[in-house]
Design brief:
The chain is of the alpha+beta class and 366 residues long. The chain has one domain: Sandwich (Jelly Rolls), CATH 2.60.120. It contains 9 helices and 15 strands. It has an 8-stranded mixed β-sheet with strand order 2-3-11-8-13-6-5-4. It has a 5-stranded mixed β-sheet with strand order 1-10-9-12-7, with no helix packed on it. Strand 9 and strand 10 form a beta hairpin. Helix 3 packs across helix 6 and helix 4 crosses helix 6. The relative contact order is 0.16. Its EC number is 1.14.20.6. It is an enzyme of class 1 (oxidoreductase). One of its GO terms (molecular function) is metal ion binding. Belongs to the iron/ascorbate-dependent oxidoreductase family. Involved in the regulation of shoot development and salicylic acid (SA) homeostasis.
């Protein structure tokens, strides 16, 4: 039976911030053995997408891209890598990136700092609650849209804008320095990947960088905490969705939970050490006029371990109008399939809609 514990507190605190009960606090409550009914997430039992397979069970293996061959390979190696990136973006919207430029020690240190943030006293984290990340630099919260979600999701999160202007929470000690270095390294990594993606589309190497105004582009760190859930079959960490932005560079803490949708099946993606999981996002699908697909993905939860994921969003500047590249269009054979929209307006559209599948992207399809 689901618990009737209240999922959130509705009154205002003395500092004007609306406090809520975090999933972490809920999961650590004494004698907690069933989830509140508001966290019960039901899927359609007749939905073929509920077929779940592990990545080693899939005949079409998840693409693996060697970043070093893109940057330092000879002509033939680089040409093949660019081709493989394009194929991965087109067929999966997802790939595993190896031999990249971010050190394992920095990745592990960043994971430790994220855990240290979530382990702060609740009042220290609530300083960043009741905000919107497009209006403020840092947002701490739970679920996705607490006021609009029909069912709450089993996650707590912090989102931090780190480019074009760098921000950081004041606590824990060392978070600012580590996140600043991590942000610089992943921003450079993302822009280099987008150069390869530009070439894979037959465009000039810096086409995406220039047209998406990445000198003032948006980079955001989005950390998600998924505490152990006593009834994992009844809850969902995050529902099926695609992301705003161009690319999402994801790392995990060694506990798997990411599932990507591929050819009608949910694929469990193992947590791989020292690799980035690269997700194609909505604005790359729009810019490529649908040739490259943003990947629908979700987060499953576990009753045995806490999962943490850290996503680095690589996105256009907030005032950039994202639309299909004119160089890829033909009025007869390949007309524009999406309307142009400012990035900030797309984020607001996402915020104000129920998050499911490509529900937001579908609103800008022609």
């Amino acid at each position: 039976m689901a618990s009737t514990l209240p999922p959130q507190v509705n009154q205002k605190s003395n500092n004007g911030i609306t406090p809520f009960t975090s999933v972490k606090t809920l999961s650590e409550s004494p004698d907690f053995n069933s989830i509140p009914s508001s966290y019960t997430y039901t899927t359609n039992p007749h939905d073929e997408n509920e077929i779940v397979a592990d990545q080693d069970e899939v005949n079409d293996p998840i693409p693996v891209i060697d970043y070093s061959l893109l940057i330092n390979g000879n002509h033939d190696q680089r040409t093949k890598t660019i081709h493989d990136i394009g194929k991965a973006c087109e067929e999966w919207g997802f790939f595993i990136l190896t031999n990249h430029s971010v050190s394992k020690s920095l990745m592990e240190k960043m994971v430790d700092q994220v855990f240290a943030f979530f382990n702060l006293k609740e009042e220290d984290k609530q300083v960043y609650a009741d905000k919107e990340v497009t209006d403020d630099s840092i947002k701490y919260g739970t679920s996705f849209n607490v006021s609009g979600d029909k069912n709450l999701f089993w996650r707590d999160f912090i989102k931090i804008i780190v480019h074009p202007k760098f921000h950081s929470p004041d606590k824990p000690s060392g978070f600012r320095e580590t996140s600043a270095e991590y942000s610089r390294k992943t921003w450079k990594l993302g822009r280099e990947l987008l150069k390869g993606i530009s070439e894979s589309l037959g465009l000039e190497v810096n086409y995406i960088d220039k047209t998406m105004n990445l000198d003032s582009g948006l980079q955001m760190l989005a950390a998600n905490l998924y505490p152990p859930c006593p009834q994992p079959d009844l809850a969902m960490g995050m529902p099926p969705h695609s992301d705003h932005g161009l690319l999402n560079l994801l790392i995990q803490n060694g506990v798997s939970g990411l599932q990507v949708l591929h050819n009608g099946k949910w694929i469990n993606v193992s947590s791989t050490s020292n690799c980035f999981l690269v997700l194609v996002s909505d604005h790359l699908e729009i810019m490529s006029n649908g040739k490259y697909k943003s990947v629908v993905h979700r987060a499953a939860v576990s009753n045995g371990a806490t999962r943490m994921s850290l996503a680095t969003v690589i996105a256009p500047s907030l005032d950039t109008v994202v639309e299909p590249a004119s160089e890829l269009l033909d009025n007869e054979s390949n007309p524009a399939a999406y309307v142009g929209m400012k990035h900030i307006d797309y984020m607001k559209l996402q915020r104000n809609n129920q998050l499911y599948g490509k529900s937001v992207l579908n609103k800008v399809k022609i």
